[in-house]
Amino acid sequence: MHPEIENLIDMALADGVVTEKERVIILRKAESLGIDKDEIEMILDGKLHQLEASKPKQKEKVGNVKTCPACGATVKSFTTKCLDCGHEYRATKGVSSIITLTEKIETIDPNIEDYDDVIEGIISNFPIPNNKEDLLEFIAVGISKAAWGEGGIKKTWADKADEAINKLEIISINDLTFKPHVDNYRKMLRKKKIKSNINMFFLLLGVAAFVALAYFLTT
Asked: Which residue, of 97, 99, 125, 202, has the greatest Cβ tally within 10 A?
């Protein structure tokens, strides 16, 4: 990621909340640097998800009722979905899948032989989350990694994000509130893949031109 954008995002996340003004400033800076604003949005949302996942959850039960963490509505203790906003929740939550995967990757020494192959294997073999909340976070971070990664690792993140999008579509097939998320993430990933293919085309074209020029100069 561009250091100026990374610095702005870090400053915006310092208080745990990204205001609309901060978001506009970050996107405006990205545009001035020629960086895709949609990709920055995905990175910002992914970091926000990670920040929220790392916060300790407050106890929700109060007698025989509890409060929905999404809209504040009062619901019965054993309800697993808020009838007011549709938010699904659990009394306890472990470490999110994307945090576990990221920590696993960070344990690998970047100086080892075949580092890229090892990282690609870890990402490819990592199990996709089973709940919608984890899937949304996994997809957001996965697409941001695919946008800013390198070589094969970049493609592996894209494939993993695609796999997670497909799973989210399957498990939320009867929940229309998630369809916009699925469509938006799929659109973002498709856009990223097209851009990556175009960049690869021009890279190969440049190499071919260089080889042709070298041949011409030596004959």
From this structure: 97
